[in-house]
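Here we describe the complex-level prediction in full. Unlike the single-chain runs in Section 2.1, the two entities below were treated as one system.
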Amino acid sequence: MNWKTFAAMLARDAHVARRNAIQLFLQTFLQPLLFVFIFGRVMVGSGFLPASYKSLLLPGIIAISMVFTGIWAVAMPLIAEFQWTREIEDRLLAPIAVPWIAIEKVFAGMLQALVAGLVVIPLAWLVLRPGVEISIGSPLTFAVILVLIAIFSAGGGLALGCSINQQHIGLMFGMVITPMIFFGCTYYPWSALKTFPVLQKAVLINPLVYASEGMRATLVPQFPHLPVTAVLIALVFFDVLLLVVGLRQFEKKAVS
Amino acid sequence: MAIGVRTQDLRKVYSASPPLAAGGGLIGRAEAKDGKQPKAQIPALDGLSLEILPGEIFGLLGPNGAGKSTTVGVLTTRVRPTSGQAWIGEHDVWKEQTQVKHLIGVVPQRPNLDFSLTAREILIFHAAYFGIGSRQRNERADKLLEKFKLAERANQLVRGFSGGMMQRLSIARAMMHDPQVLFLDEPSAGLDPQTRILLWEIIREYHQAGRTVLLTTHNMEEADGLCKRLAIIDHGHVIALGTSVELKASVPGGYLLRLRFGNQTAELLQRLQSLAGVREVRATDSTGADLYADRGGSLIPEIASLAANTGAELSDVHISEPSLENLFLHHTGRSLRD
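The structure predicted for the assembly as a whole is:
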């Protein structure tokens, strides 16, 4: 392992992220904030939704923001760089073992996801207040869950980015991302699906469910949520799975 | 000290995946593997053995699809060979990839510059990947930008660069970490004549500093003028190897006359063979013949009258002077440009 090379690649990603800061900011935060505004302020303010919905919504918004920031940050550049610009070749020829290049991408994506999560909390709180009742009972559990979500999002980005052809990006959004959001228990707690028992079981294959429920369990425990242990186990499972699949796909792409 | 490059019995067979639609879906690759449709097996290298000596400029010459880029790919850790071995200096390319990557610089056939960075940043970050310190990498970047006449656009994103500028920057980047072996895959393709001359100068200069250079080309002039030794490859193996002079001398006679007749007979071919200076006659199809001889134009009157006597009218003649193209044709029956 060559730390200098790894650090230089991270520096390159940071440099590019800084250069695209405004675009990145809008891309990450505009959609969740609009969502928070419409559902948390407009719908609640006009009485269509109860005031407590504000607190229920926030954890889901954090989960979505993190997951899609991580996926986007890793998958989109990989799709373009492997298939179109071939920019990645420069790093594939850097003196470091190939899997570390993928790990660097995941690490950079993780950092972006964490920043997204940590920034969206105060932003959403500003839009929603007053009336948001957040209580972080165990900061450690909260931090662990944040990190696990960040790994899952960046690992998912790696797996998707190395498996999808450029011409299928649209399809990826329609068939993977959209159902993932709507069946991800982001806008409602998992227990709300109890009237659809089959669906309630089926959505458990969606890792976003554990991200949303994990945030709910640690931020707004007053609402029904999956047990923290189950969330932790599931997130670790998905982290490992996506990293293994992603690294394998990356190596396949990197060496023909 | 300069280091050499060696390959032994390299084979590479690409498995072409069936079209994604046939693979059945979005995440097609993994599923296609178990699919029913057999994959097409495309052999690219077929027992390629080469030895490039330390400090020489070596050329791989061959038509498109001959296996030149695959050879470069194997030697630069980008294409895993199906069998066989490759070494850069003492290092086995597929066992010591990281060490090998330290020693090599690669200029790809297609520009693969980092589009999110400026020209200068591309060089700086490249050097940083190789662990070169900040002061040194800034100095080197300035020097190379100057040398490649890119200093004026150094702080612009490369997105708007012309093909020639991208190519120059690719070469500058490959030289940033001062590699022992420089690989250039079709370096002058698409370059204007002026840039090509600049490029050749730079390659010669780099070589004089004691570095090994391997370039692929299908440009005769480049192979002839730049390379110390050449390997002509076709269908994934070496068909001829030597200096340009040696290779040209290995063509019988040296001159090639491509003839076409209205009506070609076996008798005509036999009589052509007996003309003074003719070394070899080969029928190419029912009306054409390739004639290798040690003279060119002066043979034409004799051929024309001989053809007239046998009732086979000479309808077309093309004379080539001794060249690598003739050599390739002699070995494969095909033109390099085919």
